[in-house]
Amino acid sequence: MGELETAVDRCRAQRWRPRREHTQQLSNLLAASQVLRRAAHKPPPAQAYTGKHRERRF
């Protein structure tokens, strides 16, 4: 029971200490994944005219 309590305390201590950095990293990852998903599905209208660049990239 002591090990479980120390593990829970460790998780609690890690949850409140680096929370800002973790949320920032998560939001960065989410934004990057959304951008990648959008680029993979359909090209944005601003880059639709650059056909050669798109073919070279993929």
Structural summary, described in words:
The chain has 58 residues and is an all-alpha fold. It is built from three helices and no strands. The protein has a domain at 23-58. The model has no long low-confidence stretch (mean pLDDT 69). The termini are far apart.
The level of helicity is over 70%
SSE sequence, one letter per element: HHH
| Largest sheet entry | none
How many alpha or pi helices?
A: 3
Unreliable spans: none
Structural class: mainly alpha
Question: What shape does the CA trace take?
Answer: rod-shaped
Radius of gyration: 21 Å
Indicate the mean pLDDT. Answer: 69
Number of strands: 0
What distance lies between the first and last C-alpha atoms, to the nearest angstrom?
Answer: 54 Å
Our estimate of the beta-strand percent is: under 5%
In a few lines, what is going on in this structure?
This protein is 78% helix and 0% strand. The protein has helices at 2-16, 19-41, 51-57. The N and C termini lie far apart (54 Å).
Give short descriptive properties of this protein:
58 residues, mainly alpha, 3 helices, 78% helix
Map the helices and strands.
Layout: H1 2-16, H2 19-41, H3 51-57
